[in-house]
Amino acid sequence: MDRAIKLVFIRGFSFSQFVVATKRSSKMQLRVRDHFGDSVGVKARDGGTVLLAILLIASAACGGNGSASMAPQDAATTTELTDISGWYRVTSDLQGPCGMTRASPLAGTHAFVERNQNTFVWRVCSGPTRAECTGTLFYDFTTPIDHGLSAEGGTAFFSAGCTLNWERALATLAGTELHARSLKNSINKDLPQTACTLDAARMLTGPCTYEIDLVATRL
């Protein structure tokens, strides 16, 4: 009886451990993941009983004594999306230089957080109707965190030097109270135009130049 077994390895390593299994099938294909996340495919075709050897890649951390172990797969963790959309009345609005904020009317008396699939847009409003909304206050909130979402964005402007800005914001919901806080980092650097990019702005961790701290209650 003709028997053909084809092994396809996406990444080449030395193998020091294997598991043997038997299965009756006319065609079979198995795929496993190595500890780098790459696929290792094992294909077999046989009219009778097929003997499959599933080769497991030895851990890169194995010692010089030749023993092997599989690196554990990290469990996939997904933060549940918190729906912060809806109408809110702003109860506290503090803005200003980092560490020196003061009461400000810039956020409006109301906020409408609009949801577009998994993107949340914070709209500044002078009342509880869409006609009273003027603009937005933060970058769009898109990344789930515990009890809320985060947002970030910035600019890179080149003229007699490079001006980089990057803002990071968090919006968290506790019951009916929504708390939003953002910190903006800004700097002017002597960089060539080719290096004055958003990637450079994204790397900023200071200095903090502007802070917004808002509290709003859901209507």
Provide key terms for this protein.
mainly beta; three-stranded antiparallel sheet; 15 strands
List the helices and strands and how they pair.
Blueprint: E1 3-9, E2 15-24, E3 27-33, E4 39-46, E5 49-57, E6 86-96, E7 102-103, E8 110-116, E9 119-125, E10 133-136, E11 143-145, E12 148-158, E13 162-174, E14 177-189, H1 198-202, E15 208-218
Antiparallel strand pairs: 1-4, 2-5, 3-4, 6-7, 6-8, 6-15, 8-9, 9-10, 11-12, 12-13, 13-14, 14-15
Commentary on this structure:
With about 220 residues, the chain is an all-beta fold. It folds into two domains: about 5-55, no CATH class; about 85-219, Lipocalin (Beta Barrel). It contains one helix and 15 strands, in the order E-E-E-E-E-E-E-E-E-E-E-E-E-E-H-E. The strands form three sheets. Strands 6, 7, 8, 9, 10, 11, 12, 13, 14 and 15 form a ten-stranded antiparallel β-sheet that branches. Strands 1-4-3 form a three-stranded antiparallel β-sheet, with no helix packed on it. Strands 2-5 form a two-stranded antiparallel sheet. The N and C termini lie far apart (about 75 Å). About 15% of the residues are buried.
Shape: globular
Distance between the termini: 75 Å
Bin the helical content.
under 10%
CATH architecture group name of the largest domain: Beta Barrel
Order of helices and strands: EEEEEEEEEEEEEEHE
**Largest sheet, strands/sense/barrel:** 10 strands, antiparallel
What is the top-level CATH class of the largest domain?
Mainly Beta
Q: What structural category characterises the helix and strand content?
A: mainly beta
Average pLDDT, all residues: 74
Count of individual helical segments = 1
Strand fraction band?
Answer: over 45%
Whole-number tally of structural domains: 2
Low-confidence stretches: 1-76
- CATH topology annotation of the largest domain: Lipocalin
Total number of strands: 15
Q: What's the alpha carbon Rg, rounded to whole Å?
A: 28 Å
